[in-house]
Amino acid sequence: MDALRKQIADAYGSGWEIDSLDLVAGKASASRQVEVTQVEQTSSEGRESIQVKLPRTTKPSDGDKTAAKLESSYEGYTLTQFEPFLGFAVMEKLTPAAIRARGALSVALGVKPWEVQIADTVSGGFAFTLPRTYVPSKHDDKMQEVAEAVVGREGWFVRVNAQDLTAELVPSSPPTFPPVLAYPFGKAVPAYNAAAGDWARIPIGERLPKLGSNTGEPLATDFLANPMMQISGVTGGGKGVLLTALAAGALARGWELGLVDAVKGGVDFATSIVPFVKPGFFAEDLEQACTVVAMAYEEGQRRKKLIKQHGVQKFTQLPDPPRPLMIIVDEATSLLLTSPVPKGIDKGSSLALEITNRNLLMGTTLEWMGKIARELRFVGVSLVLSTQVASATVGIPTELRANLGAKFLMGASPTPGNRRLALAAPDAVPEVPRNVATDEGGAARGVGVFEREGSAPGVFKAYFSPPEQFGVWLGKLGVQKTATPNPSASQIARYTPSLEQEADEPRGKSRYDEGGFGHTSDRDEPRLRGAAAAAHASKLIADGHH
Description:
By secondary structure, the protein is an alpha+beta fold. The protein is built from 14 helices and 20 strands.
């Protein structure tokens, strides 16, 4: 064979390859493939390309070697197609930025660089092709990382057409919020219809816009899907803004409302919400708070009996369904955190009795709140608990938090500890983006994150308008006002326990006439205290004893 090759080369020149031998006929077949280059202008993309014929011996594994050889031979050109079985390769002139983007994308997609066809776009991004092995779940996150961290910056995104196997790296600014999201007073409010369910979807703000968009989708919380709600956040985080929008939206959709603000006395809601509460359902001190929550629980018990009597499953199926009732408890931490009697203080002193009575009110209030969240999901009584920190340490037990299915954490930069306490699955809930959290133009005001049972978590911003505008709006909608927002003295006496102690009677007395809280038929029995006393009072209400 060597002698034959030499003879052919001497006669016809080098580069010949023997293709076949016919020893019977005494013939050999040889061929020589000459590299022929053809330079043509690519009109569609405006850049030159060179098509190079490859030797027949070129294999798919020779791609890197071929690219290095051709790119060194044709300065300024990059290998963009490698077809060893078809016998050709294509070289094109690419910008340095396109070469960089193509290399990063090829790594993200797990292919060779020449398998990604890329071109600069007029917007400053890149259009490129996807390999046949592209899978969204496997490759999208990696390509997004290329867009934001390798080729572009925060805000860039990937637009994919999976059917055509094409995509684009799109330059964009990171999504953000406007300084203020005004409450949509001009949007039509559906009339109350228990069967329709519109009453349960209350708009509270907007989601963070998607990449490449300037407008976020409206966000509503659905009380049919999640009847109980927890709102957490430090002072100034926007809890009050969210509560106002929530309460006003509920009133506008036909809800009855109870408001417990025993810490600030309803200052934040004086002109917007308080005039429209259910009569007797506004609490601005601890005794009133205990009364309102107790009355709400009693109303829930009444509805449970009706549901049972009519053989239905929820209150909206009743022949004459009552309106849904929302109880908002603001600053729950301060309302529910009990205080120990200081050491050295006589347990019979007025100070010790005052602390004990206060703790009893708190314990009773907490007990009824827990029962509302645990027992009344289907009767149309919803509990909204607002607090700075939600933990057993500050008086809010784990069971109660677990029964509050919709969780909102207000504030642009909560600590990891706050996230763990406020959210059921903090690792699955996105954080407020850095560009929003650090914005000095107002984008961070009223923002937060949320998670709800049965839906994806997200970042949002609450609606805001001056409080008096909510009051005017509710008045125009015809929402009924009340002249008696606070519980009456008789209601307080009926629902509020105490452990008043007289000098000649060491056991506890009750505000109930007979059979009430703390009363025992046997004077030698120990009086109930603390959680046990609260549980006993709760049972009495559940059983219809007042």
